[in-house]
Amino acid sequence: MNATIMAPNAEYQTCIDACHKCAQICQECFRLCLEEQDVKSREHCILDLMDCADACSMAGCAMSRRSKHLKQICEMCANICDECAKECSKFTDDHNRMCADACRKCADECRKMVSM
Fold first, then answer.
1. By the number of CB atoms within 10 A of the CB, which of 15, 24, 42, 103 ranks highest?
2. Where exactly are the transmembrane stretches of this chain (predicted)?
3. pLDDT per residue as tens, the chain (116 positions)
4. pTM of structure
5. How far apart are CA 66 and CA 80, in angstroms?
């Protein structure tokens, strides 16, 4: 018996990849922020990083399973990514800069999904 293997959904794959990358970078940035000397001044950033990583993971999974709530989830993810990018941009270190860039890219990709 031959099982049919579904190919990755090409129309979603770029956004799935951006979401998973953003989630990973947010987790890494979160860890690095905790090691900074000014950790108290990063409290809002750290909280946004955790929310963003969760939202991105959720959006990536929702696209993978073709959730009926996909557009709402991607819209939420884009908004949270925007907030996280704004907060990360307040800091000049490399990990926050890279995270802000990943968040902006993910927000852009999620908005493309919403407009499909």
1. 103
2. none
3. 455 555 557 789 999 999 999 999 999 999 999 999 999 999 999 999 999 999 999 999 999 999 999 999 999 999 999 999 999 999 999 999 999 999 999 999 999 999 98
4. 0.90
5. 21
Amino acid in position 41:
S
